[in-house]
Design brief:
Blueprint: E1 2-7, H1 10-20, E2 27-32, E3 42-43, H2 51-60, E4 65-68, H3 71-75, H4 78-84, E5 89-90, H5 98-101, H6 103-113, E6 120-123, H7 126-136, E7 140-144, E8 153-156, H8 159-169, E9 175-178, E10 185-193, E11 197-199, E12 204-205, E13 208-210, E14 214-217, E15 222-225, H9 246-268, E16 274-284, E17 287-294, H10 302-305, H11 313-322, E18 337-344, E19 357-358, H12 361-365, E20 370-374, E21 377-380, E22 383-386, E23 390-398, H13 401-412
Parallel strand pairs: 1-2, 1-4, 2-3, 4-5
Antiparallel strand pairs: 6-9, 7-8, 7-9, 10-11, 10-16, 12-15, 13-14, 15-18, 16-17, 18-23, 19-22, 20-23, 21-22
Helix pairs in contact: 2-4, 6-9, 7-8
Length: 432
């Protein structure tokens, strides 16, 4: 197939690497891409957020499938324009993408679908924010209602810090104040064709900047998959028999009680969701609840889920885009462990320092079981420079988590970036 992937981050690089690994020999194109993606796909000069530009390009160049990586093109309506021209596209339309683009919309859909989630107040003024955080108590959770690149959320015991966060986003619109939910977090992806859903493998990411979950929220500093501890937190009602695999039981429960009701609710409202439903979940003492939904592959979880996927990714994406997921069985995953660690620029996330050279990438890639997913790199002279906050994902695979983690950090030690920062505790709790 001729496949066009929209986006420029490590998530898109991971998707492209998965597509390139297939025996079918696809022609892969990317817009706008980055320096790492350029080594694995043909870069095209195209505004990925322009519905007209993307549709014209796909039509003129006989693209068989468009895969939308980031949220911005979805909210801009790129998928709608492609579907109107009959071009298969993996990604929801503008209306369904509100599931990520508007926290208030997502809460309404969850309520209508009977999906478990935390209490929330949609606040338009500072006074309403104050009343809500006082009602729910600490820790305080305040979220920007719209897109904020994964950094529009604050969770804090400090009331004044919560109010200051709200003040920063209120000029642009309302914010959401939510009750704090406690428990381990899990990311679970679902492929959807608007009617049927197929789950992928669970992962866990690390949102805070520093070790021990300290520091500010980021777009994600690392992740691992699968989750060997999941059985400790699976609600009793999820396991149908003593021999049921805990992870399978958990996935079945979330599929049945969360993913399918949400997809059916959106379909009933005339906004079918075709693409990747990302469920950010928390395992509370009261059961599994939804923290948030995203309308695309998560970053950095994609980097550890797709390398374990056995089924051809292209066939699954095309089936979802064409409305034929019912023809496919639940995707299979290898038992390998996958760990990814993000290398970020100095000053990330508040004010990342960019333009600094990278070194040691070839040595890092040469470590057994390791590959790199580029997030923000560009060619400068004979080398590469960092162009954003999150620069690279170092992905380690192994037969055990100890092996995968050791490989990832051994490779990371080969990479040079002045002021570069990364967490040293990714997947530390699951090493065997």
């Amino acid at each position: 197939m001729r496949i066009l992937v929209l986006g420029s981050g490590a998530r898109e690089h991971a998707i492209i690497l998965a597509l390139q690994s297939e025996e079918a020999g696809h022609e892969i194109f990317a817009a706008p891409g980055n320096a790492g993606i350029a080594r694995d796909a043909t870069i095209v000069d195209l505004d990925a957020n322009s519905p007209g530009a993307v549709t014209d390009h796909a039509n003129e160049h006989a693209i068989d499938l468009v895969v939308i990586g980031p949220e911005a093109p979805l909210v801009a309506g790129v998928a709608d324009a492609l579907r109107e021209r009959g071009i298969p596209v993996f990604g929801p339309g503008k209306a369904a993408a509100q599931l990520e683009g508007s926290k208030a919309f997502a809460k309404r859909i969850m309520e209508a679908a009977g999906v478990p989630t935390g209490r929330a107040v949609h606040a338009y003024t500072r006074a309403e924010v104050e009343a809500a955080i006082d009602e729910f108590g600490a820790p305080h959770v305040v979220k920007a209602d719209g897109l904020a690149a994964g950094k529009g959320v604050i969770v804090t015991e400090d009331r004044e810090a919560a109010l200051a966060h709200a003040d920063a986003y209120l000029p642009a619109g309302p914010v959401l104040v939510e009750e704090f939910l406690s428990g381990p977090e899990v990311s679970l992806f679902f492929l959807s064709d608007g009617d049927h859903v197929l789950p992928l493998s669970p992962a866990q990411d690390f949102k805070r900047l520093r070790d021990g979950d300290a520091g500010p929220n980021t777009g994600g500093m690392g992740a691992y998959s699968p989750l060997p501890w999941l059985g400790e937190h699976v609600p009793a009602q999820a396991v149908e028999g003593e021999s049921a695999d805990p992870e399978d039981a958990f996935v079945d429960l979330v599929t049945r009680e969360i993913a399918e009701p949400v997809i059916h609710q959106l379909d009933s409202e005339g906004t079918p969701f075709i693409g990747l439903l990302y469920a950010g979940l928390i395992l509370t003492p009261q059961g599994v609840k939804v923290i948030e939904f995203n309308a695309r592959f998560g970053d950095p979880e994609t980097q550890v889920v797709l390398p374990r996927l056995i089924d051809p990714l292209s066939e699954l994406l095309l089936a979802a885009a064409s409305g034929h997921l019912e023809d496919h069985a639940r995707p299979a995953f290898a038992g390998a462990a996958a760990v990814t660690v993000v290398l970020a620029s100095e000053g990330y996330p508040e004010a990342p320092v960019t333009g600094r050279p990278l070194s040691g990438l070839d040595a890092a890639s040469a470590v057994d079981g390791v590959h790199l997913a580029h997030a923000a790199t560009a060619v400068a002279g004979d080398g590469l420079v960092a162009t954003g906050g999150r620069v690279l994902n170092v992905v380690g695979l192994g037969t055990t988590f100890t092996e995968a983690r050791d490989r990832a950090y051994r490779a990371l030690a080969e990479i040079g970036l002045e002021g570069g920062q990364y967490r040293t505790d990714i997947a530390a709790r699951v090493t065997d």
